[in-house]
Write a structure and sequence with these properties.
heterodimer; A: two-stranded antiparallel sheet; B: two-stranded antiparallel ribbon; elongated; quinone (chain B); Nuo/plastoQ_OxRdtase_6_NuoJ (chain B); transmembrane helix (chain B); membrane (chain B); NAD (chain B)
């Protein structure tokens, strides 16, 4: 998986950004926007087809080849529907809420690296709209501003279900943003940079290593393997952040009709849908960039030297994004919705502590790598093992006491308690069952003793 | 944004950004004060905070700018909105003046204060050219801040974080209603209480519905014909009918 030095030149650095002529910038911006819209169009189709496949039914297959144009037809129909403005709505906020959602969702795509340096009409330019030294924070900022769209949409509708949905979603997204931000911290610590192109470059090869007692340890390039807990927590919190099943509590149909978009119709509703799918694609793209090596080819392909050069990067990038979107759909097709308190408990009491402990451990490993003397290293490892041992020993025993025998429990009841049926009660055979058996009994032709009818077993058969 | 190091001189992009966003920031600030609806006020404040975030980025502090947007605009203002929405959307200020002329006085004093601060800042730093920005951002903005925070200002930083954690824990302690585990009733205990001697475990009988009355204050009748007071809610005041009410109305014949 080592990348030859020749192709490292393909890696854009921060200095490569900001030198494009205006029309190349315009092309990149428009391309990113078109990608967002196309991803929604195809994403809805993809989701419906995949869910259909999982439920053994065809899914949309009438409009266009394989039903590809179904979303377009649905979108056109939606645009021509009546745009309802509820009487109790706050008109200005009601109008702006969906646009805030969409703008924030699309903005995050600006710092996603789609590929390496390419030649575009004779200009060497990175396949990324722009990159800044705090690019990942830009993504976080966009997602935290995107909550406003949902919350304001819910509030401005002036009705109860949307308000509840909006409040739920704000609590949910803020909680899961904490877990998400912490899992990204591990990436920052390992990569040493917050710029997305820099993080992709840092995942290029397995050159990081640690030596312990004469052994050399090589770490894999992808952070999904190197920082597996962070990747898992990032993905779980990404599902929570995008309000997708099984965490789609803000729009839980069975409880809140459609959550924050109950009152929305026509194009405004379409904008919310657009924002949701763009968000799904964005978090998939961010996961690809931060954990799956970005536009770099996966291992067996990366042996071929040309795989990471030029426009090929787009193929690997989109393949990884589609794979992650498939996982989103798969989750939706498989898991039932969580209850709200279970969901919050998962976020605050499971994901967050695991993340904190993992970051602490990672910091320890980083210190270990920098230490030169073996004695200090063994000291740190021994200390860590000691802490783990102490925690294991002090862990509270949660085994339950064996329940007392039934008769003892009955005897312990105070005088005058509610009457209980006798403990040795045997249910008498049902007269109906006996009649049924008698009707079905063959006539005793031989004149011998009739078989003893086992009423309990025939009762079971009746059932 | 890429030439952060050169930001000491005002570039065209910086000037354009400033002149677009500065009026917006002011508009947001004024709107926050003027808006009648509390949620609208919060939204105007969000606008101002967003503009401030962009200003920080333009002023070669991308990290602090982004943190401003994520923490202040994204989290803190969201909690504000959360509370305002739960309070209710019609909770606008009352327009009755309790102090006569305080509005005019407030505007005048506010303008005076703004003028004073503006003059102060302008005279203090108006002629100064900022130096040392390149040196500060030499190893990158984030790394520069981290190096300062964890070397020169590490005690101040740790003390502040301890203070914040104390405040958060204090808020939780104040809001937390402590219930020892022995007082918390589980399902088996609840059921045992329900079936304990002297407690009637079944639902209470409904109030009586008769031809003469269907009031909830009318006691229901048990199977043996006796009235049961259990069917009458305890909060209902017992009310005797006046003789005039009990007297025949003259409608029967």
């Amino acid at each position: 998986m080592t990348t030859p030095a020749v192709y490292l030149a393909q890696d854009p650095t921060l200095a490569d950004f900001g030198h494009d002529p205006w029309w190349i910038s315009l092309i990149k911006v428009v391309a990113a926007f078109v990608f967002a819209v196309l991803a929604t169009l195809l994403g809805v189709w993809f989701e419906r087809r995949v869910v259909g496949f999982m439920q053994v039914r065809p899914g949309p297959n009438q409009v266009g080849p394989f039903g590809l144009l179904q979303t377009l037809a649905d979108g056109l129909k939606m645009a021509f529907k009546e745009d309802i403005l509820p009487k109790g709505a706050d008109k200005v906020v009601y109008f702006f809420a969906p646009t805030i959602s969409v703008i924030c969702a699309v903005t995050a795509l600006a710092v996603i690296p789609f590929g390496p340096m390419v030649s575009m009409f004779g200009h060497q330019t990175p396949l990324q709209v722009t990159d800044v030294s705090v690019a990942v924070l830009v993504i976080l900022a966009a997602s935290s501003m995107g909550i406003y769209g949902i919350v304001l949409g819910g509030w401005a509708s002036g009705s109860t279900y949307p308000l509840l949905g909006g409040l739920r979603s704000s609590a949910q997204m803020i909680s899961y943003e904490v877990a998400m931000g912490l899992s990204i911290v591990a990436v920052f610590m390992t990569a040493g940079t917050m710029s997305t192109s820099g993080i992709v470059a840092a995942q290029a090869g397995s050159d990081r290593s640690a030596s312990l007692g004469g052994f050399e340890f090589f770490a894999p390039g992808w952070y999904a393997i190197l920082l597996l807990p962070s990747f898992i927590i990032y993905f779980i919190s990404a599902v929570g952040e995008t309000n997708r099943a099984p965490f789609d509590l803000p729009e839980a149909e069975s409880e809140l009709v459609a959550g924050f978009m109950t009152e929305y119709s026509s194009l405004k509703f379409a904008l919310f849908m657009l924002a949701e799918y763009v968000n799904m694609v964005t978090v998939s793209a961010v996961a690809t960039t931060l954990f799956l090596g970005g536009w770099r080819a996966p291992w067996p392909i990366s042996i071929w030297d040309g795989a990471n050069s030029g426009w090929f990067g787009l193929i690997w990038f989109f393949a990884k994004v589609i794979l992650l979107v498939f996982v989103f759909v798969w989750l939706r097709g498989t898991l039932p919705r969580l209850r709200y308190d279970q969901f919050m408990r998962l976020g605050w009491r499971v994901l967050l502590p695991i993340n904190l402990v993992w970051i602490l451990a990672l910091a320890g490993i980083r210190v270990l790598q920098k230490e030169n003397s073996d004695a200090v290293r063994w000291g740190i490892i021994g200390g860590a093992l000691l802490v783990i041992l102490l925690i294991t020993l002090a862990w509270p025993d949660r085994r339950k006491q064996p329940p007392r025998p039934l008769q003892e429990q009955v005897n312990a009841r105070p005088q005058g308690s509610f009457p209980l049926p006798p403990m040795d009660l045997v249910v008498p055979p049902s007269p109906r069952a006996r009649r049924g058996v008698a009707q079905r009994q063959p006539a005793n032709v031989g004149g011998g003793a009739p078989d003893v009818v086992d009423t309990t077993s025939t009762e079971e058969k009746e059932d | 944004m890429t030439n952060i190091a050169l930001a000491a001189t005002v570039t065209t992009g910086e000037a354009v950004t400033f002149w677009i966003l500065a009026p917006l920031a002011l508009l947001g600030a004024i709107g926050m004060v003027v808006a009648r609806n509390a949620v609208h006020s919060a939204l105007w404040l969000v606008l101002t905070m967003l503009c401030l975030g962009v200003f920080y980025v333009v002023q070669a502090g991308p990290f602090i700018g982004m943190v401003q947007i994520i923490v202040y605009t994204g989290a803190i203002m969201m909690l504000f909105l959360f509370v305002l929405m739960l309070v209710g959307r019609d909770a606008s200020d009352s327009l009755i003046e309790t102090l006569r002329g305080q509005r005019v006085a407030a505007v005048l004093v506010g303008l005076g204060f703004a003028g004073l601060v503006g003059t102060l800042v302008a005279r203090a730093v108006g002629d100064t050219t900022a130096v040392g920005l390149e040196a500060a951002n030499q190893n990158g903005n984030v790394q520069g801040i981290a190096a300062l925070l964890f070397t020169n200002y590490v005690f101040a930083f740790e003390a502040t974080s301890a203070l914040l954690i104390t405040a958060a824990v204090g808020a939780m302690v104040l809001a937390h209603i402590h219930k020892p585990k022995s007082e918390r009733l589980g399902q088996p205990e609840t059921m045992r209480l329900r079936f304990r001697p002297g407690n009637y475990p079944a639902p209470k009988p409904g109030p009586g519905v008769y031809a003469t009355s269907d009031s909830v204050a009318t006691p229901g009748r048990l199977p043996d014909g006796t009235l049961t007071q259990r069917s009458v809610p305890e909060i209902l005041p017992t009310r005797e009918l006046s003789p005039r009410e009990t007297a025949p109305k003259g409608t029967e014949k």
